[in-house]
Amino acid sequence: MIKDLEQVFIKSQKKVIENFTNIESSKNANITFDKWKRPEGGGGQTFVIESGSFFDNCAVNFSSIEGKKLPKAALGNSLIKSSKSGYKAMGLSVITHPKNPFIPTSHLNIRLFCILDKNKNIKEWWAGGGYDLTPFFSFKADNVKWHDDAKSVLDRYNKNFYKSFSKNCNEYFYIPHRNERRGVGGIFFDNFTKMNINKTTDMLSDIADQYLCSYLDIANTRKKTKFTKEHKEFQLLRRGRYAEFNLVNDRGTAFGLQSNGRIQSILASLPKDVKWSYKKDSAYLKMERQLLKHINRDWNV
């Protein structure tokens, strides 16, 4: 059964890779696809585009790892005591950092944690995931559609899911030391066991498909927008917020590190080009004020 579950994530990864390869038109982009194994058990495959015409960098990472002791960062803490026979954790994570500042950064994650019995069969499980959008120059139409699409896919399973998951997203993707949200939200959920495992993995697959469709719609709408050095500088500085969240607050990053994960795959989510500056000029401050009006409000539909 575990092999069948892994195929759900592998198929989603393949679909994202095919679409991202198509949108990246530069023949000079650095494209890498690694298959790797983990000494403690399991492995994965990581796809990365760097220095392209569309992507500064992006990463599409599938992993399926196993071990004896569940890392502290894993949710479902009430189940940790029952993991004496080990665990299996599988998931897909996607992160995009486009070159054009008018195309948002995006993030998708779908995952499944399994507690195993002594025969290595699934004893208990829970799922999690979601996706969110981090614009640098925010457009109301994009934000509304992003949320409309998320609600549409979740409504197929339960009409109450979107309200709960979008609220979770706003609360989770928050940078306390900046008193800011990371972006305009989306959906986020964890410790999910409200449906059977097959229906749950169907939902995870549909969420990945909807993320891809919604993001490509926005990307294709904004990709021809002209930008200046000033716009690019603003994007690089605001990417610092993204890096700060991933390194300081993100539980997924913590889980990867605590489980002795593959460091280059875990940190592939960080932007290739990013800046921090002690003093910001007036042009930056003006653009930031406008952006904060969008990211510190609810776009929930």
List keywords for this structure.
single chain; 301 residues; alpha+beta; oxygen-dependent coproporphyrinogen oxidase; 8 helices; 9 strands; globular
Describe the structure.
The protein is α+β, with helices and mostly antiparallel strands. The chain has one domain (2-295): oxygen-dependent coproporphyrinogen oxidase (3-Layer(aba) Sandwich). 41% of the residues lie in helices and 26% in strands. It is built from 8 helices and 9 strands. The protein has helices spanning 2-23, 140-155, 161-172, 197-222, 229-248, 251-258, 263-266, 282-295, and strands spanning 30-37, 42-50, 55-67, 87-98, 105-116, 122-134, 174-175, 180-181, 185-192. The strands form 2 sheets. It has a 7-stranded antiparallel sheet with strand order 1-2-3-4-5-6-9. The chain has a two-stranded antiparallel sheet with strand order 7-8. A hairpin with a 5-residue loop joins strand 5 and strand 6. Helix 2 runs antiparallel to helix 4. It is globular and about 65 Å long.
Number of domains: 1
Give the integer mean of the pLDDT values.
92
Assembly type of the chains comes to single chain
Low-confidence stretches: none
CATH topology: oxygen-dependent coproporphyrinogen oxidase
Structural class: alpha+beta
Q: What does the largest sheet look like?
A: 7 strands, antiparallel
Q: What is the first-to-last residue Cα distance?
A: 37 Å
Radius of gyration: 19 Å
The portion of residues forming beta strands comes to 25-35%
The order of strands across the largest sheet is: 1-2-3-4-5-6-9
Total DSSP helices: 8
Please bin the fraction of helical residues.
40-55%
CATH class: Alpha Beta
Which of globular, elongated, flat, extended, rod-shaped describes the shape? globular
**Architecture per CATH nomenclature, i.e. the level-2 architecture:** 3-Layer(aba) Sandwich
CATH superfamily: Coproporphyrinogen III oxidase, aerobic
What is the helix/strand order?
Answer: HEEEEEEHHEEEHHHHH
For the secondary structure, the number of strands is 9
